[in-house]
């Protein structure tokens, strides 16, 4: 029996946590070079980056989870894709254009030097927009993945995990120059490829179908899953620091396409579902703030890198005080732009955009 959609409150909390993590990772990425390599703050940056590497896997997982819960017994091809297009593409096109114009006229003309089709279809306008192209790839594959999952269930999930682990191993070895793949996929190209995330998407099917939140046999052992996730996170941080020493490439050392992050993200997501009733016992006012943030999550995601770029012209995150101000302003301004987008859309005499 699949998960009941009335429990979307759980998913909203996790969605907010996911977006929070993504923005923090990008703030850290914009701050690394201001701090001495090996310093305490720099090490905290690396650790925090690895801590929140569950963010995109969690977002992809939530997509798979909700789609399975809604469509596993009643899939209408036309309605499914129409809804996805209405929810995603208008905002994506608008904010891609805004970001493109800002970069073109304020950074270096031609800085975003890709053919128009790549800018639109592959999210090449800015480094975070790969997500839209990637998630659409998974949406296009959803009917096929759903059909295969219904036939093979957990076996299909395990197969995808093995294939994902093999891909991550090859990419890591190539990044360390231990092997040389015939094709070279850098971070954004790896993230753009649906195969990098497909396990998390279908893992969402399985968790939804099993109603993990209510499964007492899993809940009895939830502390074990949490301890395992914590232990693997510690190793992921250690592994990242070792890779930085070996490769001197922070992107290679911290990226999500590594086995420790695959294991950590999977266990984190599983543990989060087993502890959700505790998360929902937080202060009522704080919960309302989290749900408000979750409701704007897609728009906040689209706008936050533009805010980071603009603020970087005025505030350098090269001290703890400046970093605090910078982080606060990034979140505040991103939420403001998201809310402003909703307000403007509500005044347009067409069907309101959904997100």
Tell me what the structure shows:
The protein is mainly α. The protein has one domain. Helix content is 74%, strand content 0%. The chain has 17 helices and no strands. The model is unreliable at 1-6 (pLDDT under 50).
Features:
mainly alpha; 355 residues; 74% helix; disordered N terminus
Question: How many domains comprise the coordinates?
Answer: 1
Indicate the proportion of strand residues.
Answer: under 5%
* Spans of at least 5 consecutive residues with low confidence: 1-6
The helix content is over 70%
**What's the pLDDT, averaged over the residues?**
87
Q: Tell me the number of helical segments per DSSP (H or I, 4 or more residues long).
A: 17
Note the main sheet: none
The count of strands amounts to 0
Report, as a whole number of angstroms, the end-to-end distance: 27 Å
Structural class: mainly alpha
H/E series? HHHHHHHHHHHHHHHHH
- Write down the overall geometry: globular
Radius of gyration, CA atoms, in whole angstroms: 20 Å
Blueprint (SSEs and pairs):
Elements (H helix, E strand, L loop, with lengths): L7 H24 L8 H12 L3 H17 L5 H30 L9 H6 L8 H23 L1 H22 L11 H6 L5 H13 L5 H4 L2 H26 L2 H5 L4 H16 L1 H4 L4 H12 L1 H15 L8 H28 L8
Helix pairs in contact: 1-2, 1-3, 1-15, 1-16, 1-17, 2-11, 3-9, 4-6, 4-16, 6-9, 7-9, 11-13, 16-17
Task: Describe, in short, the structure shown.
The chain has 17 helices and no strands. The protein is mostly helical.
């Amino acid at each position: 029996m699949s998960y009941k959609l009335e429990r979307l409150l759980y998913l909203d909390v996790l969605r907010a946590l996911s977006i929070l993590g993504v923005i923090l990772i990008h703030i850290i990425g914009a701050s690394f070079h201001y701090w001495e390599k090996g310093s305490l703050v720099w090490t905290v940056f690396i650790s925090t980056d690895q801590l929140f590497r569950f963010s995109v896997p969690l977002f992809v997982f939530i997509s798979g989870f909700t789609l399975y819960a809604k469509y596993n017994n009643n899939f209408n091809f036309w309605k499914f894709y129409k809804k996805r297009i209405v929810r995603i593409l208008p905002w994506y096109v608008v904010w891609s254009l805004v970001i493109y114009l800002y970069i073109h006229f304020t950074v270096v003309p031609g800085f975003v030097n890709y053919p128009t089709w790549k800018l639109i279809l592959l999210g090449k306008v800015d480094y975070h927009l790969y997500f839209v192209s990637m998630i659409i790839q998974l949406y296009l594959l959803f009917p096929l993945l759903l059909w295969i999952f219904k036939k093979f269930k957990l076996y299909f999930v395990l197969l995808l995990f093995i294939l994902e682990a093999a891909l991550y191993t090859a990419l890591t070895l190539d990044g360390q120059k231990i092997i040389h793949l015939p094709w070279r996929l850098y971070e954004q190209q790896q993230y753009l490829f649906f195969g990098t995330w497909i396990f998390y998407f279908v893992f969402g099917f399985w968790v939804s179908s099993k109603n993990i939140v209510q499964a007492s046999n899993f809940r009895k052992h939830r502390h074990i899953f949490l301890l395992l996730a914590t232990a693997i996170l510690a190793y992921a941080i250690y592994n990242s620091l070792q890779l930085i020493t070996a490769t001197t490439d922070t992107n290679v050392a911290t990226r999500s396409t590594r086995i420790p992050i695959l294991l950590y993200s999977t266990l984190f997501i599983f543990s989060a579902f087993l502890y959700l009733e505790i998360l929902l016992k937080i202060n009522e006012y704080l919960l309302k703030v989290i749900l408000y943030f979750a409701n704007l999550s897609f728009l906040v995601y689209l706008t936050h890198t533009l805010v980071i770029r603009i603020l970087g012209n005025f505030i350098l995150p090269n001290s703890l005080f400046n970093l605090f101000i910078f982080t606060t302003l990034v979140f505040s301004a991103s939420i403001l732009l998201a809310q402003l987008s909703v307000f403007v859309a509500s005044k347009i005499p067409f069907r309101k955009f959904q997100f």
